[in-house]
Amino acid sequence: MDNTPFLSARFDKFIARLPAPYRYGRAPYLVFFVSIIIALLVLDMLITPYPNTVGVTFALALLLAFFFFLVYWGVPLAPIIHMGTAASAAMLCYVAWHAGGVFFPRLAWLMILPLTPFYVISRGAGYFWLCVVWLLQLGMAAANYWGWLPPFHHELHHATSTWVTISAVTGTLIIVPMIYDRLHEQAVQKGMRYQRELELKRQELEQILQMREHFIATISHELRTPMNAILGFNDLLMARVQDKPEALKVLNHTRQSADHLMTVINDILDYSQLQAGQLVVHSETFELRKITGYAFELFRPKVKSMAVDYKIELDEALPKWVHTDRHRLMQVLVNLLGNALKFTHQGEVVLRVQWENPGVLFSVTDTGIGIAPERRDQIFKRFSQADIGIHSRYGGNGLGLAISQKLAHLLGGDIGFESELGQGSRFWFRLPLQAAEAPQHTPDAQSPALQTGDQVWRFLIVDDHPINRLLVKKVLQNGWPQCEILEAAEGQQALQMLRDTPVDLVLMDMVMPVMDGIAATRCLRETFAATVKDLPVLGLTANVNPVDLEVFRQAGLSDLMLKPFEPAQLCAKVEQCLLTAKKSSQGS
């Protein structure tokens, strides 16, 4: 039975009862050790057969007790240890000189004298007192050898033999703690090396995480930037072919495919942000049936080539308007519908939306391959699919369901599923939605009429991508046919143009070479004249990192839009900035 915890607890209680000066560092161990020595000295006085040693023993006990008070008064331990060791050595030698010299049994106490300096002060102190003890033992043996001490009847070789024995035992006794101390030091050094290795690993992992976040942010920006042009020009074309059904049909397919690609891009970015706790909900009021229908119709072209009955069932009691993050809602629906169609070769896939008053239950039921019971715990884990061979047969990145679960929780809801292997699955998620009032300005497929559409404005578009500048230019020209548009490829060029030519509004990209949009906006607000520095600046960026966006806003933006954007929403934002600036100038 290991009594170490019991003894340790007892010793801790002993330390707790000591006066404050004895509780810290090595003081409690010294107090414990010296207390034992004093107790043994008292016992020796009671049983000693040498009456002439009682007084010296009693004096040593008093001296050791006096050292307790020196510690209490704040005297450093090192001199107290040296004085105590010297006094003990002197007492033992005095008694031995009158009681048999090297043959005196209590001379064995000399063997433990180097231990206290060794542990409490330093190795050097221990080695010093070891040498002193050896010299004292040698001196006592020499006195016996030359017949200076009683008893004189011992043979001379007895003194030499006794001296060799006690000196060897003394050396052996000090070797044991020396070995232990050395092993302890090696263990400490090994532990410190291990700690340094762990710290290096931690720093390396942090660097890898930072590189990953930077990589994902860069990839996201580089992917979202061309997607901005694709979706933007697609919307412009759709507005021009409203009277051409076939062309409109093709453009709708293009838009749905682009939306699906944006979902894949957002999956990767969103999971990274979810892991870092940076993803936030952007709630808005929208038509529930319309958004649900968009998600459902996204897969219509794919279903036409499949032997699957693809249906949607919407509860008649569903509210028309709800308030939540429509993009996240659509993302979850797209993930669930995409999974159902991927694993269903025949039968049906049904999207049901039911009103629970309050709350809405979304469910996707399929007659696909189903999920084995032993794999169900893995379904919502990242990069995990129901079977190892699924990726090779069906594709997918294993992120859709993991992201859907986190998004459902982020929206305040829950998600789950029921499934039987070979019979299909039913995935569902419930959101605490309530009926909302219709917004004052409902979005429409076509650009709404602008209050300032007949006015002449001068806009400055700052973006390093010519295609994006062309897209924004076309959107602005559609909204304000008489407007004049200036273009700049980076921040310094834009600032120079603002010094030379007055404009009414700046559309500023964030990530650009030479000078980015953050620095350019900050410079505009801080260094330009009052007539220019209050110019409305609308930020346009494909960077969706919340920290970067907040820095961009703090630089002095009037408003901010993310790429890809809806042309109608861009026009509405621009007009709002123009009207706000106009009111502000009239008020001043």
Question: Quick recap of the structure?
Answer:
With 588 residues, the chain is α/β, with parallel strands linked by helices.
Low-confidence sequence ranges: 383-397, 442-447
Major beta sheet, strand line-up: 2-4-5-7-6
State the assembly state of the protein chains. single chain
What's the architecture of the largest domain, going by CATH?
Answer: 2-Layer Sandwich
| CATH-level-4 superfamily name of the largest domain | Histidine kinase-like ATPase, C-terminal domain
Shape: elongated
CATH class call of the largest domain: Alpha Beta
Specify the number of helices: 19
Helix content: 55-70%
Measure the end-to-end span: 88 Å
Task: Describe the secondary-structure layout.
Blueprint: H1 4-16, H2 27-47, H3 54-72, H4 77-97, H5 115-121, H6 123-145, H7 156-240, H8 245-276, E1 284-287, H9 288-297, H10 300-303, E2 307-314, E3 321-324, H11 326-342, E4 346-355, E5 360-366, H12 390-394, H13 400-410, E6 414-420, E7 424-431, E8 458-462, H14 466-479, E9 484-488, H15 491-500, E10 505-509, H16 517-527, H17 530-533, E11 537-541, H18 546-554, E12 559-562, H19 567-587
Parallel strand pairs: 2-4, 8-9, 8-10, 10-11, 11-12
Antiparallel strand pairs: 1-3, 4-5, 5-7, 6-7
Helix pairs in contact: 2-3, 3-4, 4-5, 4-6, 5-6, 6-7, 7-8, 7-14, 8-13, 9-11, 11-13, 14-19, 15-16, 16-18
